[in-house]
Amino acid sequence: TVTDHGVPAKSTTVRVIVKVLDENDNRPQFLEKIYKIKLPEREKPEKDRALKRDPVYRVIASDRDVGANSEISYSIEEGDEHGKFFIEPKTGLVSSKKFSSAGEYDILTIKAVDNGRPQKSSTCRLHIEWIPKPEVAASAPPLAFEEPPFFFSVMESDPVAHMVGVITTETSDTPVWFEITGGNYDSRFDVGKASGTLIVARPLDAEQKSNYNLTVEATDGTRFVSAQVLIRVIDTNNHRPQFSQPRYEVVVAEDTPPETEVLRIGATDED
């Protein structure tokens, strides 16, 4: 607001919007520095593995910066001298390409790099212990989920690593491992390999997609079952209304009758 020194004083006001540009001052941070997982041995022939990689584990990092500065790429830095593994650069999902027998132990060093200038990075370790496939007794009850399908909701503002819910199977005497096998658009969610805990893996946007229909598979190393998991992303009021144009101008005759419509202003809101 600016005011003159006249009598009476007169003033005028203008609105100034200041946009603060993000500086790449945060490194990507993994949810854990050391991941440890036990998995049943993989016995699929090599020729079949060339056609399809088997998911092993997903590591997740987040970055407190915004925009391009928060975009993360993953790579395997150490521990894969024989080309046994592959990591999806965008999602952090590690897959195996070769046979793994019980008793083997792999340690991978995985690097997360942001897209800022200059780039910042961090690393984590993934320990994989390959164990014999659990023996399932002939009298064992069938492997089954508890009361599928599962329904969860999450706010689009909930951060990476926020727990959405837990997917459970009926009591079993053998370990059970979980995997999302379908419907995970842009890899926004992840499920704990051994826990069944469903978390936010990447930032959500309800305007982009508000409903997810995931397929989650559970296995004890021998048997496999699948369940449907429905997730609703709840919109938050994070957008201002926007007028259809920044300036409106209209000419009105001085003899225009009262209550005559002279202009219609339009606005939209992305929420």
UniProtKB/TrEMBL annotation:
GO molecular function terms listed in the Swiss-Prot or TrEMBL record: calcium ion binding
GO cellular component, one term: plasma membrane
Database matches in Gene3D superfamilies: Cadherins
PANTHER family in alphabetical order: FAT ATYPICAL CADHERIN-RELATED (PTHR24026), PROTOCADHERIN FAT 1 (PTHR24026:SF42)
UniProt main location, coarse: membrane
CDD domains tied to this protein: Cadherin_repeat (cd11304)
GO annotation, biological process: anatomical structure morphogenesis; homophilic cell adhesion via plasma membrane adhesion molecules
Entry-linked InterPro entries: Cadherin-like_dom, Cadherin-like_sf, Cadherin_CS
Membrane recorded as keyword: yes
Subcellular location: Membrane
Keywords, ordered alphabetically: Calcium, Membrane, Repeat, Transmembrane, Transmembrane helix
Cadherin domain location: 2-30, 31-151, 146-243
Name of the molecule in the record: Cadherin domain-containing protein
